[in-house]
Amino acid sequence: MSYLSPLLNRHGAVQAGGLDAGVAAHYGDPNREQRLLAGYNGKPGTAVVDLSHRGVVTVTGPDRLSWLNTLSSQSLTALEPNVGTELLLLSIQGRIEYDAHVVDDGEVTWLIVETEEAAPLAAWLNSMRFMLRVEIADASSEWAVLGSVAEVPEWTSHLRWSDPWPHIGAGGYSYAAVPEDRHPGLERPWHEYLVPMADLEAAVGVRPLAGVWAAEALRIAAWRPRRGAETDDKTIPHELDLLRTAVHLAKGCYKGQETVARVHNLGHPPRRLVFLQLDGSQHTIPAPGSDVLAGDRKVGVVTSVAQHYEMGPIALALIKRNVDPDLPLDVDDAGEKYVAAQELIVATDAGQVVGRKTGFLRAPR
What domains sit in the chain, N to C, each tagged with a CATH number? Predict the structure, then answer.
């Protein structure tokens, strides 16, 4: 049976679909919910988002961090308790198979993933255990996730994953067309709290709730890619600027590393993530999966779209790398066209990085 959050019983709740089926898209006033989530007039946000449909996988045992380090794109051997990071599990061809939000509490490593990824991820990790001292479990039915922009003082007893985006991590590299101190992701700190599923309603209490539409609008405005939205079966990390938070370029061997290194040092990613500001004169927004056109030529596809409370309709799209960044684009949703102004996320010349004399590749500061 598909999961349905008990918070869908709250007044005004309208269930979401797609990746977020099972929780509320909104509670009757999406724009107000965005303001309460983001904060306004200099005040921090007060709303929280029900993400209890997310998958949660736990890894225990003394070898857990060194073992995950050998499997993933991220360096985890020195991960401190309660410090959030992100890892990718890649195919041999360097394509993204899993993207996990990672936090360790000193005894357990917690992996927060999309709903449908928890069971297959747990099964794959179990198949890779061999003789190591690790235990893996799909704990999605026991633990809920709640999201917020501001830290929640009352939840200090709950384990928290804080999104490293958009800061460039150790061993990471920025493919963005803007410097780190001008990245729009700085306006959206993001936290995900792990709460026992049985305590979900009590933890929220009377605190204002925002639906996932509000969270998605802020995510898109922050240029933050999401597994299952910005990814397909061909996506490599470079296309989404995920080398900044999810890849350590100087760590040891892992599956897919050859592609990561080759594209970074010798080539260019074939596609690039782009932010689209859509014409707001229409009363609708295009659906994810809509074609992105340059004239009559298809150059990409819309991956995420939302109505932002300040900017109006916005979207993320994955387009061909060599599309002129000054070119006006159109979005075609089954014949309904929307004019789109593109804003660079991943630079058109990203890739072909030359290492420093030390042999290490460092993020520009």
Answer: 6-264 (3.30.1360.120), 270-344 (2.40.30.110)
Question: Which amino acid is present at 300?
Answer: G
Cβ–Cβ < 8 Å for 238, 262: no
Residue 201, both tokens: 């309603």
CA–CA separation, 266 vs 342, rounded Å?
A: 27
Pair of tokens at residue 263:
């594209």
Closest CA to 68 of 117, 119, 103: 103
The sign of the CA dihedral 236, 239, 242, 243 is: positive
Give per-10-residue mean pLDDT for the chain (365 aa).
93 98 98 96 94 98 97 97 98 98 98 98 96 96 98 97 98 96 97 98 98 98 98 98 98 94 95 96 92 97 97 98 95 96 95 48 36
The answer to whether 149 touches 163, Cβ cutoff 8 Å, is: no
